[in-house]
Design goal:
The structure holds two protein chains of two kinds. Chain A is of the alpha+beta class. Chain A has helices spanning 23-36, 65-78, 85-96, 118-123, and strands spanning 10-15, 43-49, 55-62, 102-105, 115-117, 129-132, 142-144, 152-154, 157-164, 170-172. Chain A has four helices and ten strands. The chains are: A alpha+beta, B alpha+beta.
């Protein structure tokens, strides 16, 4: 399903600057705002920027150019960006070519709410490859997805890193709710832009 | 070029002294303490008056030339020291995510065989404001009640821009004031609350970490406190501690920033839910790379994930030729420890004494007082707690000349530290001699050999003499001798691999009790190098049959995968 990537006609990007807002909080905020705008978000990709302060940037894609631009404007108003125009264009190119970045939203037509077979995930999503860390992924592997998959882009492929867990299953290395240390801060409500 | 052999010794050349000798609080006479107090007030005033990031004087000269090959020895080998088991990472009701009293933690640690403990509640605004003062009398009371145990009042510092770290100060007239001032000026969460940095983990905090360590060095140099140590905790749990940051801490404060937890605590966190555990990652290492705060070099790849434990040890320590080895290849000190990080214990029936209506710790109440009420026994075993009591599973064994707080700290500073899990061995003594140095040196030490000479490394292991606290008698199956060249200070501070460091020799151990002596000789030595050991019960190994395996998330029985790690010895070829 890799060709899906080029179907989105419109792409925008922003970075969170020196904001103290966490990656997951930013993601929730973007998704929440897209819903409010009734925007059909096809791709939402996060990036690491390391020039100056280490920080996170996002690239978004949709066929609805008007609403996507609205989302972009609202985000940029709230989070004064560090990245310049050329840096943003570069990020968009990387996402379009599946070179770098982590996909929060991506074309997906298979049910991942509990578990999904590796085969069905490859056939029913933009994911090109599933990589088990340190071992060969069995061809009949079941991925315990729990509704949460965040594949990463690398050299033109969308890859999902998984690891062996209890009961012979595999799970994506990125979990939705890893152990929160130090008393945590609980789930954060999306920011109202 | 080499030969290795193993043989048995009947007589012991190490002595695990279970002495009733009591702990000496301080080596300093009282009048010195009085002077120090005056100096402290001056120092605190001066620091408060300047911007926190202003240079705070030159770092101590010690160790700046450490990496240069020289004809000298450091840590000469000596027989019969105290082998003092301890833990420098313990939480109490003064942490916003923990619940037990100081007395309970100390009593349990003592019951499980510890000689020393550092109480390290999390830094934070409420902790700085309330908890430090409140815990001080509790710690004094515990010292009186447990005179055969050393109890340090420490801090789990939120290293700005990075993970946590243990700060250890000796009991001293000024220690509590220094801790409070350090936390106020340099704790990442305190700084974030004060809006001085964006976030405790934000990269804009990194200069504060270096400034904080230099500030501690200044307190030592000016005589305000006799000593201070810092060990980074759970270094790549979230991939926060970048190689450049670690080198920055080490080089900013030689003699103070001394190492990291080779093995994190929370070793029960990987126990399967079916067995009453939380079914998380071992050490609660179940996090993902985060673009916002993780260092780019710690992304997972097809062969390894730096954000997981391997045989219970952090990846930066467990990986042969990894970040730890790249630090050692510089020829500079960087030591490992292993701790419990105990907050809430596997299958225990206690819950926090101050809970919300939904049954979780009431952090809002904590924020107002810096303390929870004493934990309460519900009589029902928890199914979600992932820690062990201090001493129950993890030990940092320090080889110390005497039972004094300062001597113990000096031994830690010197790297005379062994780490064990699940009582895999009772203890070990390392002695490295050369054709030029017949006395030899021990871990953390440094010796020399004329080029072309021989180096003989000997590890004498006291095998486990009793069942561990899971009721199993551990059997040591193999010992790896790891060595690599000393290549000098890293030109690139982000260097994170030492590709020439290798397992030099694996010794199979068939003996099941008593003492094992393993000797290996490096012949015709041409270049400076370092060596270190690790050993395993051999039950869980990577596919190569040598290295530890990545711990299986949600299904890691810590008692079925035991390791010990020693600290290194450096050998200069001159």
């Amino acid at each position: 399903m890799t060709t899906t990537v080029n179907r989105s006609s419109s792409w925008v990007s922003f970075d969170s600057g020196a904001s103290s807002v966490s990656r997951s909080h930013l993601e929730a905020t973007i998704i929440n705002h897209a819903k409010k705008l009734k925007l059909d978000l096809q791709w939402l990709v996060s990036f690491q920027l390391t020039e100056g302060l280490r920080r996170v940037a996002f690239v978004m894609a949709s066929n609805d150019e008007g609403k996507l631009q609205q989302l972009s404007t609202d985000l940029s108003d709230y989070f004064p960006s560090f990245a310049g125009e050329s840096e943003r264009r570069e990020l968009i190119e990387k996402a379009r070519k599946l070179q770098d970045g982590r996909a929060v939203h991506f074309p997906l037509s298979v049910d991942i709410s509990e578990s999904v077979s590796a085969k069905n995930l490859i056939n029913g999503s933009a994911v090109d490859a599933i990589i088990a860390i340190g071992e060969e992924l069995p061809s009949d592997a079941q991925i315990q997805s729990n509704g949460y998959i965040r594949p990463t882009m690398n050299s033109g492929r969308l890859e999902l890193f998984v690891e062996r867990i209890a009961g012979g299953f595999f799970a994506p290395v990125e979990r939705e709710s890893p152990h929160e240390c130090c008393g945590g801060h609980g789930p954060e409500e999306p920011i109202n832009l | 070029m080499c030969d290795g052999h193993s043989h048995n010794h009947d007589q012991s050349n190490t002595t695990d002294v279970s002495s009733n000798e009591l702990w000496q609080e301080s080596d300093a006479p009282l009048n010195e303490l009085t002077v120090s107090r005056r100096t402290l007030m001056g120092a605190l005033g001066a620091v408060a008056g300047v911007a926190a990031l202003a240079p705070l004087g030159a770092a101590p000269a010690a160790a700046t030339t450490y990496s240069e090959a020289q004809k000298r020895t450091i840590n000469p080998w000596k027989p019969a020291r105290f082998q003092l088991a301890g833990d420098h990472h313990i939480h109490t009701q003064y942490s916003r995510d923990a619940m037990h009293t100081v007395e309970k933690q100390v009593q349990k640690g003592t019951e499980y065989g510890l000689d020393w403990m550092v109480i390290t509640d999390h830094g934070g605004t409420a902790h700085q404001k309330y908890s430090v003062d409140k815990i001080t009398p509790d710690i004094k009371a515990a010292r009186l009640a447990h005179k055969n145990t050393a109890i340090f009042q420490g801090l789990e510092w939120n290293i700005p821009g990075a993970e946590h770290g243990t700060v250890i100060l000796p009991p001293h007239a000024t220690s509590v004031a220094v801790l409070k001032q350090f936390e106020l000026l340099f704790d990442g969460i305190v700084l974030a609350d004060q809006k001085k940095i964006t976030h405790a983990n934000g990269a804009d905090g990194e200069p504060f970490a270096v400034a904080g360590l230099k500030w501690l060095a200044d307190q030592v140099k000016s005589g305000v406190i006799p000593m201070a140590l810092m060990f980074a905790n759970h270094p790549t749990r979230k991939g926060l501690d970048s190689p450049a940051e670690v080198r920055g801490w080490r080089d900013a404060a030689p003699g103070i920033a001394m190492g990291w937890e080779g093995a994190p605590g929370h070793q029960a966190a990987g126990i399967a839910t079916a067995k009453g555990g939380p079914g998380s990652g071992r050490g609660y290492y179940d996090n993902a790379f985060d673009e916002k705060y993780s260092y780019e070099g710690y992304r997972p790849n097809a062969t390894e994930n730096p954000l997981r434990t391997y045989g219970g040890f952090d990846w930066v320590t467990a990986r042969v030729g990894g970040l730890w080895d790249s630090l050692l290849a510089e020829g500079k000190p960087w030591w490992i420890t292993a701790n419990s990080d105990s907050h809430q214990m596997f299958k225990e029936s206690f819950v926090g004494g101050t809970l919300t209506s939904s049954g979780s710790l009431d952090t809002a109440a904590y924020n107002l007082t810096g303390k929870y009420a004493d934990a309460v026994d519900t009589g029902v075993a928890s199914k979600t707690y992932g820690d062990f009591w201090p001493g129950y599973y993890t030990r940092t064994i320090v080889s110390s000349l005497s039972k004094s707080y300062l001597t113990l700290m000096k031994a830690m500073q010197a790297g005379q530290i062994l780490t064990t899990h699940g009582g895999i061995i009772d203890g070990a003594d390392i002695r490295v001699t050369t054709s030029d140095d017949k006395q030899g040196v021990t871990t953390g030490g440094r010796t020399f050999v004329t080029k072309g000479g021989t180096v003989t490394a000997t590890i004498t292991i006291n095998l486990a003499s009793r069942a561990n606290f899971a009721g199993l008698l551990p059997l040591l199956k193999k010992v790896d001798l790891i060595s690599g060249p000393i290549t000098g200070p890293a030109a690139n501070k982000s260097t994170m691999f030492a590709p020439d460091t290798k397992v030099e020799k694996t010794f199979e151990v068939s003996q099941s009790s008593g003492q094992v002596v393993l000797t290996y000789t490096y012949k015709n030595v041409g270049n400076s190098f370092y060596l270190r050991y690790r050993g395993s019960d051999g039950r869980v190994l990577a596919k190569n049959g040598v290295d530890p395996a990545m711990d299986v998330s949600g299904d890691s029985d810590p008692w079925n995968d035991l390791w010990f790690y020693t600290n290194p010895v450096f050998i200069d070829a001159v």
